Amino acid sequence: MKNYYIIDFDSTFTQVEALDELARISLEGSPDQEKVYKEIERYTNLAMEGKISFRESLAGRISLLKANKSHLQKLIKHLKKKVSKSFDRNREFFKQNADTAWIVSGGFKEFIIPVVSPYGILEENIYANTFKFDEQGYIIGYDDTNPLSDEGGKVKLLKDLNIQGKIYGIGDGYSDFQLKESGLIEKFFAFTENISRKSVTDKADHVTPSFDEFLYVNQLPSAISYPKNRILCLIVGDVPEIAIDILKRDGFSIRVKDTFEEKYTSDVGMLLLGKGVKVTNEQLSRADKLKTLGYLGDVKGNVSRSLCTEKGIVIFDDKKEKSTNSEFVPRRMAEFINNGDTDQSRNFPHLILPKKLKGHRLLHIHKNVPGILARINNIYADNQINILSQFLMTRGDIGYVVTDIDSNYDKSLIKQLKQIENTIKFRILYK
To answer: Residue 24 phi/psi, 5° resolution?
Structure first.
């Protein structure tokens, strides 16, 4: 049986609610703009939380819009820039699943089709409402015979379509959860990249902070190697909001604490510390998933650099205590996670890497002993791997080899690289 993917549009495929944005455009310059917009937004939220019927919400919003076809063109241009980041980077998924990746929305085809079609989503697989216009091109209503204009419309539509296969639903609102409630879909994934509604997430089979997470959980090919929302970034002590916001906006799972709590030791992947915070060697020795540590101050005397090096943990710190380093340090941490860069590290060789355009990037951190590079390249040769580019630098006791290769290789290659003697850490990057 085929797998089908039923994807919502507003606040899921796009970052925003399209009718709310259309209201902003059509009401621009009106003295009642903010008042009317707030009322439209209120209708949207009430329906998304299941507090009023979808039809009541739709009719209320349409009556307030005062929009025409020229406003729709502006809206389309705006929405194309507001596609959710995790959907945008996974265009290849839609091309490969053109027959089974569907958009099902209470929104309107007039703006949905132009936004999603460039991603390879077929027009016949886009199910949504349609507007009614008067002779001057103003929106005066909608086709109320369309099941998607009514309460429980997505359920009615799927019953009519009678899809033979496993159906997975992805959305942010109550109407998306109704599909799960009806028993028509295999699993419901509450999409929270743009907005999280407790009334929806509490009932979901899985909360997915990004489309990458959905693909990862369902073992589907993804544009990135590992969902960033699964990388725990622990922030401890007096850390400026700007530093926290940089890492939050990058998509990492953020926890802000006054102290390095024991329960996070085994799972922390990134650690950003305020000035004066100390981490014991015993804590560091058990932080096996920790990849990078940032310190807003001089790390010396507060965290063991030698132990971090021994465990392959890349340190970025604020030795000169410049005010700009509250932004610099978290950005360097993110660049290491995202691209493998170690420039300005306190304990690693300084590598500035090109932005990877294709293939996979393999990061091999090892003890600085003779012969490692030869062993790595012998494994590539034995597996007939085409090396696109390769970088090697050493510093003291640490060696760092970064190799970009074609993405077609047997998984046994990774196991062989990890088993090289004196290997400390190994990661795969692709995006």
So the answer is: -60, -40
d(CA 207, CA 196): 9
The CATH architecture assigned to 2-217 reads 3-Layer(aba) Sandwich (3.40)
- Side-chain half-sphere of 76: how many Cα atoms within 13 Å? 17
Beta bridge partners of 349: none
Reported as a pLDDT band with limits 50, 70 and 90, residue 58 is confident
**Residues of each domain in the chain carrying CATH 3.30.70.260:** 360-429
Q: Which two tokens stand for residue 163?
A: 């899809």
User: What would the mean pLDDT of 85-107 be, rounded to a whole number?
Assistant: 95
Helix 33-48 and helix 54-65, axial crossing angle in degrees, nearest 10: 160
Beta strands in 194-306 (DSSP E): 206-208, 232-236, 253-257, 268-273, 292-295
Cβ-based burial of 402 (10 A; exposed 0-12, middle 13-18, buried ≥19) = buried
For 228-339, CATH gives: 3.40.50.720
Where along the chain do the CATH 3.40.50.720 domains lie? 228-339
Burial annotation 7-27 (CB, 10 A radius, 16+ → b, else e): bbbbbbbbbbbbbbbbbbbbb
Q: What is the pLDDT of residue 48?
A: 81
SS3 state at 3: strand
What token pair was written down for 368?
Answer: 């600085």
* Diameter over CA atoms, the chain: 79
Mean pLDDT over 270-281 rounds to: 97
What's the token pair of residue 83? 């596609």
Token pair, residue 268, equals 């922390």
Nearest residue to 301 via CA among 342, 325, 273: 273
Backbone angles phi, psi at 405, to 5 degrees: -135, 165
Q: DSSP characters for 145-159?
A: TSGGGSTTHHHHHHH
Q: In a 3-state reduction of DSSP, which class is residue 83?
A: strand
Model confidence pLDDT, tens digit, residues 370-425: 999 999 999 999 999 999 999 999 999 999 999 999 999 999 999 999 999 999 99
Mean of the per-residue pLDDT values of the chain? 94
Structure tokens at 383: 């597996």
Residue with tokens 């997915």: 208
d(CA 336, CA 426): 13
Q: What's the topology of domain 360-429?
A: Alpha-Beta Plaits (3.30.70)
The closest alpha carbon to 218, from 263, 188, 258, belongs to 188
The tokens of 203 are what? 């009932």
Q: List beta partners, residue 103.
A: 7, 126
